[in-house]
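Please describe our next protein:
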Amino acid sequence: MTTSVGFILLTHQKSHQIFKLIDTLNQMFDRPPIVCHHDFSKSILPTEGLTENVSLVQPHIETGWGRFSIIEAELAAFSLMCQRAIPPDWFIVLSGADYPIKPAKQILNDLASSSYDVHMQYEYIDSNPDADRSAWQDLCYLRYYGVRFRIPSFDEKLRLSSREITLIKSPLRLPFLPYSKRFRCFAGEHWFCANRKAIEYLLKFHKSKPPLASHMRRMDAHVSTIVPDESYYHTIFCNAAHLKVSNNNWRYIDWSAKGAHPKVLRVEDLPKILESSAHFARKFDMDVDMKIFSEVDAIL
């Protein structure tokens, strides 16, 4: 029996690159089901150019980097895909800056032979204030365990403003958090793939067990960025006893830029990209390096 795959696209800019990605997926996977959430508040996407296998989430949700709105947009896309008469066996989440780097046959074979339900990069975020954590885990500890709020303050010119307060070591913090010994906090890369069983569980969890989403929404209302897409799915999947989660998300991402966003890949990065076992890579930008697309296409 052939393994079927569907794609969830989260996009907000560069329509020419979105169409390039869709065209490549159509050629590789023979017009697979694609559900796209495009944030039309950020840019226009000429919908008349979309092929019939592409469904749009409507109305769109206005999203923001590091905000819970990203989760809501993605869940809406998952839900729309699940409404198909026959949902795909596997769901692959991509941004408009992603691109395939392995042939469709290899991607489908890897998914068909996988003993896992979810492929995502994840790490456990220990709730112990004195735990031995990496710098990134410390950042996640502040993001997801911190109880944050803003208080009025004055700047040097006595103008009213506000400043953020984070209570992180208070023994009172735990009652306000959704985590426990039975429901631990996990975090990692956003981009993942999951089978139908895992996605259906995710949607059911989100609808029937709101404390985790409520916690992240409360934080979202008070903090500029909480990056929930790097923890929400991970925490749900990794706490599900009936799901097997692989720590290989089959993505190539170069974080050598040392910033909040990965390096934009160029043609000189191609040898390292192709040496990896990843199915997809990011971050690509047609306005920065168009040649890398033609090089990858020739290999595919």
